[in-house]
């Protein structure tokens, strides 16, 4: 096996070390935690309870008390749907509403047709049921225990501090009034630590009910998790938490504690602090020793220096590697007659393996700027992705300067070959276009939240959506993967790579990117699919129009039908669904990145017609007049060529 460079090894070792150190110091629970009804009581689709539940969840966000408490009841009798959401008291309203929307989506997809379910996030909880939520029987029904692996060395000493501290917080939360029953504080803890505590009830409880609920939860601290250095107990009506580190979003909730008065440790027992020193020092010494040995071995083999990076990250997927001669034979030596088109950083060819299987081969150009590391990242990344709306990687070839990716072949080519073609567009009726939109949304949601690695595509466009034999969409082209830090969901770059027209303003002007970048691109794509027009300028009765501006103005003036692709034979039953989808697309292209929904919310909106949609604000790059600049005179017409400069880049976050 070829050696990697000393710099790369050092960086990799430091990353691993910092991750392990973070894990040793602070063991955090991995939210969310959904809990379905154990009684297996279900409802049927289109039943009265189903309709009431849809109505309750769609109106839940509008019921905000102003302090992060949402409570809705819809229907009567056994078909009544009760729903509540409680956000942690230190959470801002925007984060609270995002947590609520994501909770609704995850719970409906995890506990399918369950009459009762609850989900716990770190910052909010959501519960719905056909039973009363505030009844006495509900107090302990949905309890969830989370605790740190480590314990204080002296359980009695820790309890002597913890019990009065949590009891004080219980009283403060219970007496908080009808809008917010929430308390946070700090106190000097045992063994030279600081305890950070939290108590909270749903504010519709009376003071006595809140007191009872919190008292039960605090008593459970000794039952379930006696002596642990951190515990979270979650229930639908109340919750408690304490840690030896600050976990508040707003540090103002944690005033500085008074001077520590450390409790003495019993003879013969090591304190938590001494064990913590051992846990930290031993990994540090071990890591330094390992890194030093590895670097020494690397620099002993200088003659292999030029070849060290060639196989980094490849050994674990050697079974996917193809001989380059086999690839040449499959594509008839990359014959022009086999060429499917020019993609980001290279050409794509159709090929046939010896068993007759059709494949798509992406041959990277030497001038593409995609180096060995980027290529390997793409191989590792795509090989791990398993979703019906993503193109599947079959293999790769890495030989000399040649770099080749082998994908499953899509017989219907890319989406742009249909929606922008005056003849082929007729093959896509509304049902097919709607299924394509929903499939793309599901694929993006998988990339953003459900895959092993969090991925930001950064170049979603019509030509990067391929269609299989049944016209199902598959997102393609995950080149230039850029590794993020752990749990990072946004960043800044000086290298703007993508296709103009699909990129939001914060990315073009400031280099800022997040999952909302893909949401913007998705919104543009939705409007293109419905209108049959490319983003940018096009002609309407010899008048130049910009797609996002034209769509927003048409929707605002309740004249959405004029923007729908005339080749669509729209039935009256489909018109409302199309108008609703246009509104979702406009929500995705709003100029303010915060106002754009997450893909989880988008998927929920696309699949639940009963959800009330927000009113979209002006889109990015909004043109207030139809006067064009000199740079907009080349209007887009329907054709098979791509709009904008091709590029492909993806970002991933380990989690």
What distinguishing features does this structure have?
655 residues, alpha+beta, Killer Toxin P4, Chain A, 5 domains, five-stranded antiparallel β-sheet, disordered C terminus, signal
CATH level 1 class label of the largest domain: Mainly Alpha
**How far apart are the first and last residues' alpha carbons, in Å?**
28 Å
The name CATH uses for the topology of the largest domain is Transferase(Phosphotransferase), domain 1
Mean of residue pLDDT values: 77
Whole-number total of structural domains = 5
Keywords: ATP-binding, Glycoprotein, Kinase, Membrane, Nucleotide-binding, Phosphoprotein, Receptor, Repeat, Serine/threonine-protein kinase, Signal, Transferase, Transmembrane, Transmembrane helix
Binding site for ATP: 362
Signal peptide: 1-27
Subcellular location: Membrane
Describe this structure in words.
This protein is α+β, with helices and mostly antiparallel strands and 655 residues long. The chain has helices at residues 6-25, 48-60, 93-110, 155-174, 207-225, 272-300, 324-330, 372-384, 416-419, 430-450, 505-510, 515-531, 547-556, 572-588, 599-607, and strands at 33-36, 69-74, 81-87, 117-120, 124-129, 144-147, 181-188, 194-201, 231-234, 238-243, 339-343, 346-352, 358-364, 393-399, 402-408, 453-456, 465-467, 473-475, 481-483, 490-492, 512-514, 537-540, 543-546, 650-654. The chain has five domains: 8-19 and 272-307, no CATH class; 33-133, Gnk2 domain, C-X8-C-X2-C motif (Killer Toxin P4, Chain A), CATH 3.30.430.20; 143-253, Gnk2 domain, C-X8-C-X2-C motif (Killer Toxin P4, Chain A); 310-408, Phosphorylase Kinase, domain 1 (2-Layer Sandwich); 416-624 and 635-654, Transferase(Phosphotransferase), domain 1 (Orthogonal Bundle), CATH 1.10.510. It is built from 15 helices and 24 strands. The chain has a five-stranded antiparallel beta sheet with strand order 1-4-5-3-2, covered by helices on one side. Helix 3 (93-110) crosses helix 15, helix 10 runs antiparallel to helix 15 (599-607) and helix 13 crosses helix 14. The longest helix has 29 residues, at 272-300. It is globular, with a radius of gyration of 28 Å. Mean pLDDT is 77; it is low at 19-28, 251-281, 302-315, 479-489 and 625-655.
């Amino acid at each position: 096996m070829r050696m990697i460079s000393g710099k790369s090894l050092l960086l990799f070792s430091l990353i691993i070390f910092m991750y392990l150190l973070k894990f040793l110091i602070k063991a955090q629970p991995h939210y969310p935690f959904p809990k379905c009804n154990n009684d297996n009581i279900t409802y049927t689709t289109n039943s009265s309870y189903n309709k009431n539940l849809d109505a309750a969840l769609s109106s839940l966000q509008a019921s905000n008390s102003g302090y992060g408490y949402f409570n809705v009841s819809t229907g009567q009798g056994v078909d009544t749907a009760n729903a509540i959401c409680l956000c942690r008291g230190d959470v801002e309203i925007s984060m609270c509403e995002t947590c609520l929307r994501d909770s609704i989506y995850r719970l409906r997809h995890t506990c399918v047709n369950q009459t009762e379910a609850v989900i716990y996030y770190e910052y909010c909880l959501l519960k719905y049921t056909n039973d009363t939520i505030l009844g006495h029987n509900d107090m302990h029904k949905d309890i969830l225990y989370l605790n740190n692996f480590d314990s204080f060395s002296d359980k009695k000493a820790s309890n002597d501090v913890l019990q009065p501290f949590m009891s004080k917080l219980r009283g403060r939360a219970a007496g908080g009034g009808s809008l917010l029953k929430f308390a946070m504080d700090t106190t000097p803890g045992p063994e030279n630590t600081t305890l950070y505590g939290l108590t909270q009830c749903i504010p519709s409880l009376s003071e006595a009910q809140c007191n009872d609920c919190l008292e039960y939860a605090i008593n459970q601290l000794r039952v379930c998790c006696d002596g642990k250095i951190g515990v979270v107990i979650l229930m639908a009506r109340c919750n408690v938490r304490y840690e030896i580190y600050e976990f508040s979003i707003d540090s103002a909730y944690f005033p500085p504690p008074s001077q520590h008065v450390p409790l003495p440790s019993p003879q013969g027992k090591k304190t938590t602090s001494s064990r913590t020193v051992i846990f930290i020092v031993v990994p540090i010494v071990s890591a330094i020793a390992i890194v030093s040995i590895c670097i020494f071995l690397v620099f002993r083999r200088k003659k292999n220096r030029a070849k060290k990076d060639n196989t980094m990250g490849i050994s674990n997927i050697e079974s996917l590697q193809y001989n380059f001669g086999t690839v040449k034979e499959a594509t008839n030596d990359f014959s022009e007659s086999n060429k499917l088109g020019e993609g980001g950083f290279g050409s794509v060819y159709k090929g046939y393996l010896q068993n007759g299987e059709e494949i798509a081969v992406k041959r990277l150009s030497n001038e593409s700027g995609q180096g060995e590391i980027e290529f390997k990242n793409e191989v590792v990344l795509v090989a791990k992705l398993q979703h019906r709306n993503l193109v599947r990687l079959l293999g790769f070839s890495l030989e000399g300067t040649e770099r080749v990716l082998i994908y499953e072949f899509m017989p219907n080519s890319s989406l742009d070959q249909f929606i922008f073609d005056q003849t082929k567009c007729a093959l896509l009726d509304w049902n097919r276009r709607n299924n394509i939109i929903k499939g793309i949304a599901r694929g993006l949601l998988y990339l953003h939240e459900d895959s092993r690695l969090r991925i930001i595509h950064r170049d979603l466009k019509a030509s990067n959506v391929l269609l299989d034999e049944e016209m199902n969409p598959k997102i393609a082209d995950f080149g230039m993967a850029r590794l993020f830090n752990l749990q990072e969901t946004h960043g800044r770059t000086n290298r703007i790579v993508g296709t103009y027209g699909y990129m939001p303003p914060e990315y073009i002007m400031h280099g800022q990117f997040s999952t909302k970048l893909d949401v913007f691109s998705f919104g543009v794509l939705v409007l293109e699919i419905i209108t049959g027009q490319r983003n940018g300028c096009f002609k309407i009765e010899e008048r130049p129009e910009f797609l996002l501006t034209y769509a927003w103005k048409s929707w605002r003036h309740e004249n959405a039908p004029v923007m729908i692709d005339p080749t669509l034979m729209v039935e009256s039953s489909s018109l409302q669904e199309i108008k609703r989808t246009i509104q979702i697309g406009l929500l995705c292209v709003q100029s303010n990145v915060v106002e754009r929904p997450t893909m989880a919310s988008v998927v929920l909106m696309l699949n639940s017609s009963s959800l009330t949609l927000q009113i979209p604000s002006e889109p990015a790059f909004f043109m207030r007049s139809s006067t064009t600049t000199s740079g907009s005179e080349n209007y887009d017409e329907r054709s098979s060529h791509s709009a904008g400069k091709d590029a492909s880049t993806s970002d991933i976050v380990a989690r």
